Amino acid sequence: MEKIDAVIFDMDGVLIDSEPIYMHHVLSFYERFGIHVPYEEVVKLAGSSNEASWQMMASWWKEAIDPKELEQLYETIMQGEEEVVFADIVNPYVRYILPRLRERGIKTAIASSSPMSAIHAMMQQCQLTNSFDLVVTGRDFPFSKPDPTIYLHTVKQLKVAKEHCIIIEDSTYGIEAAIRADIKVAALKDERFHYDQTKATYLVHDLLEAYHLILEGED
User: Fold this and answer.
1) d(CA 22, CA 40)
2) Using CA atoms, how far apart are residues 109 and 155, in angstroms rounded to an integer?
């Protein structure tokens, strides 16, 4: 591997193990209206773009409904009950590898499809406020992952050549976005959500393995 000057992290599923909690909230929402959604269907939301997720969720509704209308209803019904304690679901080795990357002069960034409010809440709760050089939300772009724009923008803002960057992802769409941006991607192995991780440049079992992979470029 070439020397790595910047590491770009996805948030959900990489920095925090949030997907199971979000899925539980979705199931709870539909149960309130007497709608049974098979877990196998809810799993498909993992890694989907915001727009695609609401379109999928609208298809499960008992009658035709606009995805935007469903989103508003969901936010109203679940308000106050969807609090996620990010500190409880931070992935192992996050707090270990981030300061060590920065000590080595390697830039770090978050590029997530989640809203900026959620990203900042995660950083604050997990005591990671000063751990990143750049934080980017996909909500600022017209298209979500697998569109590569979020990663191309992040690399440009970091002022680092693409060949000296690596992205850490988990989902099918996130991996595809990295590939389309022509940036190396290490997929954090996760078999719970049927992700297609076969196209990733590397497959790692945890963030510590990803960290040691990055260090190989310094040898």
Assistant:
1) 14
2) 9
Structural domains present in the chain: 6-17+86-218 (3.40.50.1000), 19-78 (no CATH)
**pLDDT for the residue numbered 83:** 74
103, 2 Cβ separation under 8 angstroms: no
The CB-side HSE value for 17 (13 A sphere, CA atoms) comes to 15
> What pLDDT sits at residue 6?
98
Q: How far is CA 216 from CA 82, 104, 165, 212, 213, in A?
A: 41, 13, 13, 6, 5
Alpha helices in the chain (DSSP H): 19-32, 39-42, 50-59, 67-78, 94-103, 116-125, 149-158, 172-180, 207-215
Determine the pLDDT at residue 217.
74
Mean per-residue pLDDT for 153-167?
A: 98
pLDDT tens digits, 12-25: 999 999 999 988 99
Task: Report residue 210 as tokens.
Answer: 């990803």
Name the residue type at position 55. Answer: Q
Q: How far apart, in whole angstroms, are the C-alpha atoms of residue 39 and residue 110? A: 29
pLDDT tens digits, 187-213: 999 998 889 999 999 999 999 999 999
